[in-house]
Specification:
heterodimer, A: mainly beta, six-stranded mixed sheet, B: mainly beta
């Protein structure tokens, strides 16, 4: 059965801390791994990863994929209260399907 | 007022027609995106751009093409529309939002029906 597992499910830290969110997957016909941030409405795109070992970076956020060990991490440094959200990991497989993880609810306290 | 616009909002066309879906934003954002979403289904990223003359294919393979000649404009083109292209197409842009970090804003969407 295809599955995407995120950990932790919930994380509360103080502003300025660095956090690492984990995503492991077991899916057939892997195409890509995507990270999204969801605050209220539709998820907003953060990164798409297709190759192992190549770090993608956007400001204080970065992500990397390990296709051998079947996982990805999302790092956020110097966290701010605006980083509070649910972070979703999704794996694209085949031609159409996206398999989503349960999400990690991140809360940044001032 | 800064915003993100999509035209047309609704489009019904016949198979084989060439169409361009327009997306413009007045927020000065460098990053822009096109998503495809079927009713009740998740968003699929089909194209994105991190700035002028930069375009990348997204997660879902698409027969559409995009261009980014100006910061504010990110049109999506289908050379020959087919019924399988029937869907909702959402444009988005993102930039640093003071106090909130990188924030993505969505346009109202274009609902495309290909007969």
């Amino acid at each position: 059965e295809d599955k995407v597992v995120q950990s932790p499910l919930s994380l509360v830290v103080h502003e300025g801390d660095t956090v690492t969110l984990n995503c492991s997957y077991e899916v057939t016909n892997f195409r890509s791994l995507l990270w999204y941030k969801q605050e209220k409405k539709a998820p907003t795109f953060l990164f798409m990863l297709t190759s192992s070992g190549i770090e993608k970076k956007s400001g204080r956020l970065s992500s990397i994929l390990d296709k051998k060990e079947l996982f990805s991490i999302l790092n956020i440094t110097a966290t701010q209260t605006g980083d509070s959200a649910i972070y979703l990991c999704a794996v694209g497989q085949g031609a159409q399907k996206l398999v989503f993880g349960q999400g990690t609810r991140l809360t940044i306290n001032p | 007022e800064a915003d993100i616009y999509q035209t047309p909002r609704y489009l019904v066309i016949g198979t084989g027609k060439k169409i361009t879906l327009e997306c413009s934003q007045t927020m000065g954002h460098d990053k822009m995106y096109w998503y495809q979403q079927d009713p009740g289904m998740e968003l699929h990223l089909i194209h994105y751009s991190y700035g002028v003359n930069s375009t990348e294919k997204g997660d879902l393979s698409s027969e559409s093409t995009v261009s980014r000649i100006r910061t504010e404009h990110f049109p999506l083109t289908l050379e020959s529309a087919r019924p399988s292209h029937t869907s909702q197409y959402l444009c988005a842009s993102s930039g640093l939002d003071r106090g909130r970090g990188e924030t993505q804003y969505f346009g109202p969407g274009t609902r495309l029906l290909v007969l």
